[in-house]
Amino acid sequence: MSRAFIREDYLKVEITFEPVLPAREVAIGWLSELPFEVFESTEHGVIVYAPKKFIKQNELLQIKTNLEAIAAVKWKESIVKTENWNAAWESDYEPVNIEGRAMVRAPFHAAPPSGLDIVIAPHMSFGTGHHDTTWLMIRMLLNLNVKGKKVLDMGCGTGVLALTALKLKASFVLAIDIEEGAFENTRENAALNGFENENRLCVKCGDVTLLKEHHHHDVILANINRNILLQDLASYDDVLTTGGNIALSGFFTGDVHVIQEAIKKLGWESLEVSESDGWACILCGKT
Predict the structure, then answer these.
(1) What's the count of helices (H) and strands (E) in the chain, helices before strands?
(2) What would the pLDDT profile of 2-32 be if each residue is shown by its tens digit?
(3) What letter does residue 110 receive in the DSSP assignment?
(4) Are 138 and 116 a contacting pair, CB within 8 Å?
(5) What pTM value is reported for the model?
(6) What's the number of CA atoms in the CB half-sphere (13 Å) around residue 144?
(7) What domains can be seen in the chain, in order of their start residue?
(8) Contact assessment for residue 210 and residue 204, using Cβ atoms and an 8 Å cutoff
């Protein structure tokens, strides 16, 4: 799920609801129509970030008003200065443990005593393991046998899934993101994990059209959003080998049936659906 590298001041909106559901899911749906780039679910609501210059206050105010019609809302806006971002995430960033099998951590955290060690310096790209969809995708990846297989990570963000696949002994990983900042961040994180000159890793900046140059992937990982997934599923089908697997996330549990209908039309089999805090992940197989 790609998110832009932070190069300007960001608007941070912290929202809490009473009751939290379904207001939080409705809020994320509405706010995703605006240029918000990072969504963090919290126990009582959501925190969202967007480049300040892209947000129209009248549109944001209208969403706030609409939300107040379905729940009691507490709303706080603040600005995250570009130069303060690293200090902000370093003070809050905690390692993410995926069932004791893998840890996603910042460079300043101690390595885990066992399991995969994945080092991520996010720089506002999406994919630190803190978001439910990233956690679901990493767990799904850990359950797949990718050793010796070719893996495609679409919307790679920080590169966390691509790097996990490499550490699971994939034979080759192609990581693609439409954002230049995510492309740069993935390359930086590759170096942090010892893959700076790794010939098994190819990182590219672009969209699904790049797949015309790269055919035949055994495993595809796509943690993006519902609309992009639905738009690009046929392109994924073109490059997924028969017998291969594709893991999809970046959508809500309420969207699972929509994704599954699209999967069915491609002749894929839905093998597993997992959920976390309103978000979903689907593992499919191509027969």
Answers:
(1) 8, 14
(2) 333 445 678 899 999 999 999 998 998 899 8
(3) P
(4) no
(5) 0.75
(6) 35
(7) 10-82 (3.30.70.260), 124-286 (3.40.50.150)
(8) yes
